[in-house]
Amino acid sequence: MTQALFLADAHLSAPDAPAYQRFLQLLAQQHGRLDTLVLLGDIFEFITGYPKTWRAEHQPALEALAALAAAGTRIIWVEGNHDFALAPFHQRYGFTLLPDGGPLTCGEVPLHLSHGDTLDPQDHGYRWWRALLRSVPTRLALRWAPRSLIRAISHRLVDGSRRRRKTGGSPLPKALLQEHARRQWRAGAAVVVCGHFHHPWDWEEDGRQLYVLGAWCDGAPCLVLENGRCRWAPYPVASVAPSA
Asked: Which one of 18, 26, 62, 153 has the minimum C-beta count within 10 Å?
């Protein structure tokens, strides 16, 4: 039996915040018992793989993730629009990074993963901003620039994120998501999973599934893949056994 757990959009900031505490409790609960943890982006309000962007508030979650990985859990991290340039995490912690998402097989189930922020081909402004954040000059800045510049980038991301959450975010673009799912199904995926939109939703067609994860920071459930089937799992996640 392969057990995988998926969550997205935790937007972790202060370690004493309820969402942060639930995240730490979830990792402790699954320590030594979970095969695969899939993080579908925006796990922190802002972080990259470069230490200049790390702050004290990042350490409890990073240490808990590292402990989970050391106990045998495979950690897959799909980069979002608040956590990117994470390549150093592979060398430091052994996490598997999927910068743009992509296919993943859990047990015998072929999945396609994405954060979800690039599904709209007409959102040219965001695509430009995303490309800038992932460009070589930005990566050099993250490594060498003054912390004041890095904090300015961080504040812009965080302020925009908080404003969107206060207004409830955007409605789910269901037609766009369905088109994306059908495209990945044709490519061989049986289950398509993404985050980003903060509203949990699932849809099935011809026995294949699409799951849009809600925001962990707002109390959304996880998604669990167990015995080849997916189910929503409100926190705390029901007890699961490791793979046989």
From this structure: 18
Structure tokens at 188: 């061989």
Pairing of strands 74-78, 96-98: parallel
> Is 23 a residue whose pLDDT tops 80?
yes
Query: What is the layout of strands, in order, in the sheet containing 208-214?
Result: 102-106, 109-114, 191-198, 208-214, 201-205
Residues 141 and 148 sit within 8 Å (Cβ to Cβ): no
Smallest CA-to-CA distance from 83 within 13, 28, 27 is with: 13
> Where do the domains of the chain lie, and which CATH numbers do they carry?
3-233 (3.60.21.10)
Q: Two tokens at 17?
A: 């915040």
Q: Which residue carries 């409790």 as its tokens?
A: 25
Question: 230 forms bridges with which residues in the sheet?
Answer: 225
Place of tokens 């956590």: 83
> Residue 84 burial (CB < 10 Å; 0-12/13-18/19+)?
buried
Dihedrals phi, psi of 6, to nearest 5 degrees: -120, 135
* C-alpha of 94 from chain center: 16
Residue 241 has pLDDT above 50, yes or no: no
- Please give the average per-residue pLDDT across 135-162, as a whole number: 73
Cα separation, 214 vs 217, whole angstroms: 9
Residue 1 reports pLDDT greater than 60: no
Could you tell me the pTM of the whole model?
0.89
pLDDT in tens, 161-200: 666 656 556 679 999 999 999 999 999 999 999 999 999 9
